[in-house]
Write a structure and sequence with these properties.
The structure holds two protein chains of two kinds. Chain A folds into two domains: 1-34; 39-153, no CATH class. Helix content of chain A is 26%, strand content 42%. Chain A has helices spanning 2-31, 117-127; strands at 43-52, 58-68, 71-78, 81-91, 97-107, 132-138, 141-144, 149-153. By secondary structure, chain A is an alpha+beta fold. Chain B is α+β, with helices and mostly antiparallel strands. Chain B has helices spanning 50-62, 70-77, 85-98, 163-197, 220-229, 231-240, 282-289, and strands at 17-19, 25-30, 35-40, 43-48, 107-110, 114-117, 122-123, 138-140, 146-148, 202-208, 211-217, 245-252, 255-261, 267-273. In chain B, helix 1 packs across helix 2 (70-77). The chains are: A alpha+beta, B alpha+beta. Chains A and B meet through helix 1, strand 1, helix 2 and strand 8 of A and helix 4, strand 13, strand 14 and helix 7 of B. Strand 1 of chain A pairs parallel with strand 14 (267-273) of chain B.
Chain lengths: 160, 290
């Protein structure tokens, strides 16, 4: 009986440790996927650049992105197409941010437009519901890994 | 007092010390005197249970954790007499009152089956060193209290464990296993997330004139190809720039990407289709550097 009681006491003590540990671990995991830690990114980001297509023509591309309270709104003008998307901003356990698209649309892209397939793919990917775009820091800018887009903070403190 | 029913050895799990429903209060059952001696803060109170009440408790304590039917209790407590069901009810009520068993946790009722004494309320007498040495023997204390010591743990078959205790332990085991699984699953998910979020990349920094060029790719092979294929383009940009500047060059499907990092933190960028890397105009390169 004594050894059984001791076993029961050990089990009870282990349960007292394990159950809160499991709860804390899962709470930590849940916190790592919410947008609460990403409010530091709030603001307006944009960039523009040129794309030299395979047919030798050059297209000017401009991109805008706004973060507000864990959500994002983006617009990409890739003449003649315009892509808009919105969704939520998530940060993982390492603090790396990613965009999760909830709504998106492509306007003005016709079948006759001469645009390389890789660019069209990126445009559609960025507007597809459920798409995840990982953001990486490049200087004062954010780089969308999957869509190859660059967004720079418009109110960067070092800007002259 | 003599007992007409000698409990079999396997059923003889009786302890003379009992816990009560009140904290710090224990009870010693004195079978010979039909008494319960309650001890609380070194103060003792003696309660007379009477012959029938004493016999009811005695029979329940012979098989703690096992159900004793009403008929058997009545036969044992009122041997040779015909009494109504109410008599047993009254004795059970009195015993519960004596043991401060307000929640019916010590003497438990099993509807249509009988009663059982909860083995968790048995208190092993620590002052009996002879318990292990002489299992299953009956010792008369100087006050005549019944002491039936517990068998050594190793000698106790698992089937003799009280059902309530076994139920509790199995519930505890399930909860423990569940918590352990949750912790393991959480750690595995955490490890997977950490492993999957760290995308390894190969980088190489090359100084070309005033330019500091950082090449980024997913493998060393692709990195070597990138440096080789964009060599002319980077040389051209180097000739254009007298000021120190930083470039990041990488490959995306179908295109080379050149990002020119500015002093204010901004980035100018340029994408060149792979088939056009040799024919890009210097205007676009200049625009990236400015």
């Amino acid at each position: 009986m004594n050894s059984q009681n001791e076993t029961g006491a050990v089990g009870k003590r282990m349960l007292r440790v394990m159950a809160p540990a499991a709860l804390l671990l899962w709470a930590f995991m849940a916190m790592g996927t919410t947008g609460t830690a990403s409010s530091s990114l709030d603001g307006h980001y944009s960039s523009s650049g040129h794309v030299l297509l395979s047919d030798g023509t050059t297209v000017k591309v401009s991109q805008s992105l706004v973060f507000n309270k864990g959500r994002f709104y983006s617009m990409t003008r890739n003449a003649p197409a315009i892509v808009e998307a919105s969704g939520r901003l998530e940060t993982d356990l390492l603090g790396r941010a990613s965009l999760v698209v909830e709504e998106g649309q492509v306007h003005g892209l016709g079948p006759k437009d001469q645009m390389d397939d890789e660019l069209v793919f990126n445009l559609f990917y960025g507007s597809h519901k459920g798409a995840r775009i990982t953001l990486e820091q490049v200087g004062a800018c954010l780089y969308g890994v999957e869509t190859r887009q660059v967004y720079c903070a418009d109110d960067h403190p070092n800007r002259g | 007092m003599t007992s007409s029913l000698t409990p079999p050895a396997t059923d003889a799990l009786i302890c003379h010390l009992l816990k009560t429903g009140r904290d710090g209060c224990t009870a010693r059952f004195d079978r010979a005197l039909f008494q319960l001696v309650l001890t609380h803060d070194e103060h003792e109170d003696t309660l007379d249970l009477g012959f029938s009440g004493s016999r009811v408790l005695e029979r329940l304590l012979q098989v703690p954790g096992e159900v004793v039917s009403r008929e058997e209790l009545m036969t044992y407590a009122w041997e040779g007499r015909v009494v109504g069901q109410g008599s047993l009810n009254q004795q059970i009520y009195t015993l519960r009152q004596a043991l401060f068993d307000a929640g019916n946790q010590i003497i438990q009722t099993l509807p249509r089956r009988g009663y059982l004494f909860n083995p968790q309320y048995l208190k092993v007498d620590q002052a009996q060193p002879s318990i292990k040495a002489a299992p299953l023997t009956v010792i008369a204390e100087k006050h005549g209290a019944v002491v039936m010591d517990l068998p050594a743990p190793s000698a106790t078959p698992k089937t003799e464990q009280p059902k309530a205790a076994r139920r509790y332990r199995s519930w505890q085991s399930i909860a423990l296993a569940g918590s352990g699984m949750m912790v393991l699953l959480g750690l595995a998910t955490l490890g997977f997330r950490l492993a999957s979020s760290s995308a390894p990349s190969f980088t190489q920094t090359v100084d070309v004139g005033a330019l500091e060029v950082l090449y980024v790719e997913k493998s060393q092979h692709l990195l070597d190809s990138l440096i080789k294929e964009t060599g002319l383009l980077v040389d051209t940009m180097s000739n254009m720039s007298a000021e120190p500047a930083r470039l990041i060059v990488n490959m995306s499907p179908g295109f080379y990407e050149i990002r020119c990092l500015q002093g204010d933190g901004r980035v100018n960028w340029l994408k060149v289709h792979k088939s056009r890397v040799q024919t890009i105009s210097s205007d676009h390169l200049q625009e990236c550097l400015q």
